Amino acid sequence: MSSQQQPLLADSKGDNFNYNSVNSQDGVSRTPGIGTGALQYRPDPLRWYILMVLCVMNISNAMFVLGSWLNLIGLVVRYVSTLKFLVNYHDQLPVYVVFAGQTLTAIAQAFFLFAPTKLAAVWFPDNHRALANTIGSTSNPLGILVAFVASPMLVDTAKDIPVMLGWFIVPGAIGCFMASLCIYKGKPEIPPSASAAMDSEPFFTGIKKLFTNKAYVMLFISFGAGFALFSALSSLLSQIVCVKGYNDVFAGICGAAIIIAGFIGAMVAGLYVDSSKKFGLTAKVTFSMSVVFICAFYIASQQEDQSVLLAISTAGFGFFGFATLPISYELGVEATYPVAEGTSGGFLAMSGQIQGIVLVLVGQYLAVDISPEDEEIQVCSKDNSVKDLKYTALMFAVYSVVAAILYVFGVRTKYHRLLAEERDRVDGTLNYRSTENSVEPLPIL
């Protein structure tokens, strides 16, 4: 066999794969006469484009072709609610229309919320999976930040709301166009890794395996708590700090600090985990550090003139909390493989959403009347309806500590996906004899 025709095993640490093989009907490249270990893998060039589409969709709240169209329709319907002629038919019709549009965009969320983990597993090799998951997972909060910053710039009075809603259609339209134009297949013809080439468990079988897996159950509870804390704190941040004299502008700066620092932290953690594969250790360290900063936030939020400490604590919470997000998704896949990545990641996100709703409701319930001393410095409202959420902030701190204990001591698992891929590489290596100018198959005994 000449050097120009030699088949080479796929290098799992790079993007360049050179092979001479026979393509089977299922699209997986196989070398003649070699067993499962000789499967050839390569990442599809389309993977980065699909990830970019996901990021654009997350800014406006949608995913891929069906989700992108559903989202775009919802955005347009929401804009239509501002048209004045609707009140000629019924004075409450604009309200119904805007709720209809918001409902459509919320339904579209189901098409992308659980997608990053699945997309990373199906389209990316093992040395890019955590980074791809990071980019996809953090693009949604980044979109929230864009809307948060853009809204005050676009709206001065109520008459400017149609302008804002019109601009919000733009990213949805761009994402819809990108998805409809170039996304024409659900997975690459040649899988990027051994795990991507293998079949996942059926859906209901996978669910059963998820909730009989102790490590995953602990991850489901503790990660969901961390996810919920971000949602709840983002929702109630202004109400918590305004009692001590911190205005909405400062609360907005703290909210932006959470997301910006979080994006940086998630990127750093994603790159590190891709190279080290230390999912559990990294996630436990970042989760624990995020708890330290949320406790610092509670202390600072109960005092006046602590703007610097508040800003640092929120940024620290974002940096370490967001770093935990994609790593936990990957850890969930490793703990439950071969359960489908979308199933394991989807239930983790669902846990966060459910716990987030509970935390916000309980947080509002724990609100108490403001003290006479705080009444003089509060900037929440000019009327007598101001409530103090100091017990809510304390509850967030305690909740985070309990979640961290469960995460650190309860989430213990082998990395089943990595082990399966390593076995595949070993099988492939054992089936080859390497010479100076060629790689020939060994006889199977």
From TrEMBL:
One of its GO terms (cellular component) is membrane. The keyword Transmembrane applies. One of its GO terms (molecular function) is transmembrane transporter activity. Keywords: Membrane, Transmembrane, Transmembrane helix. It is a multi-pass membrane protein. This is Putative major facilitator superfamily domain-containing protein 7. It holds the Pfam family MFS_1. It comes from the Eukaryota. Its main location: membrane. InterPro entries: FLVCR1-2_SLC49-like (IPR049680), MFS (IPR011701), MFS_trans_sf (IPR036259). It comes from Stichopus japonicus (Sea cucumber). The keyword Membrane applies. It is found in: Membrane. The chain crosses the membrane at residues 48-73, 93-114, 135-155, 161-184, 215-237, 249-273, 285-301, 307-327, 391-409.
